[in-house]
Hints:
This protein is α/β, with parallel strands linked by helices. The chain is built from 12 helices and 9 strands. Helix 3 packs across helix 9.
Amino acid sequence: MTEQEKQPTADRDRTHKEAGEDQSSQETAQDDGAQVSTDSTTAGVPEAAIPELVIISGMSGAGRSTAAKCLEDLGWFVVDNLPPALIPTMVELGARSQGNVARIAVVVDVRGRRFFDNLRESLADLESKHVTRRIVFLESSDEALVRRFESVRRPHPLQGDGRIVDGIDAERELLRELRGDADLVIDTSSLNVHELRAKMDAQFAGEEEPELRATVMSFGFKYGLPVDADLVADMRFLPNPHWIPELRPFNGLNEEVSAYVFNQPGAKEFLDRYAELLRLIAAGYRREGKRYVTIAIGCTGGKHRSVATAEKLAARLAAEGVETVVVHRDMGRE
Length: 334
């Protein structure tokens, strides 16, 4: 005699009745237009309940852990080394937490092609569900990364039997596409831990997210292009104040230097037209959901022309409602 046959008749009848009621309730909910989720999606979850998502990635040794710790201190729910395939599931769990998990940061590192393919599939899945996500990419120069790995006496995760630079090259190639999709690229080559935290605080500490944030950076071409620049402008078409003896000791923050720069033919016209071009580009960035842009303004040494132009351009952007930070990378370096 089976266990089901041993079950009292009343109990069996009650079980069948409850099962029928459950089936009837589900059918009624479907008839009424209610969404009944049968898979791991955010179906039926109010859009307002879907948490913010930030994906932190980048080069090994570039400061991913520091960036994640900073977001954790700001109240984000941080998951380190989460397999990319599980990111949509994490977002779904956050959406069903009744507001207890409103902001999620996931740290991922790409150590193989299959790993990267999973990440790409997860990002496509999130996009199909209209989940707002941002990618923060931590970048650094080869020299800085080698120095950091040597200082801690640890091998690069991808170097295998080769050298540290071999691992760096392999990882940079794997991450090339992801870097191109990043909303925010931070070059940590010359940053210490406190400076990196300050950059993260500046981007994520605010209660209200502005439409667009811009970093206007002056630099000197002789020191190299900023690797995190989205747009680069060259001010070397203007005469160099360096060759004016009374202006040489000063920099572009000095009123006399700035006046000299913008009294040159083409200087004001360039500023007007470049600001107009940036308005066009900014509108496109907003439509595409890009919230961060780094505009690099260069001259020979990063002291006079680029500094004066960066200051003027930043003032224009701020007047148009763009939250703007000015950085003079190479001023004082000579």
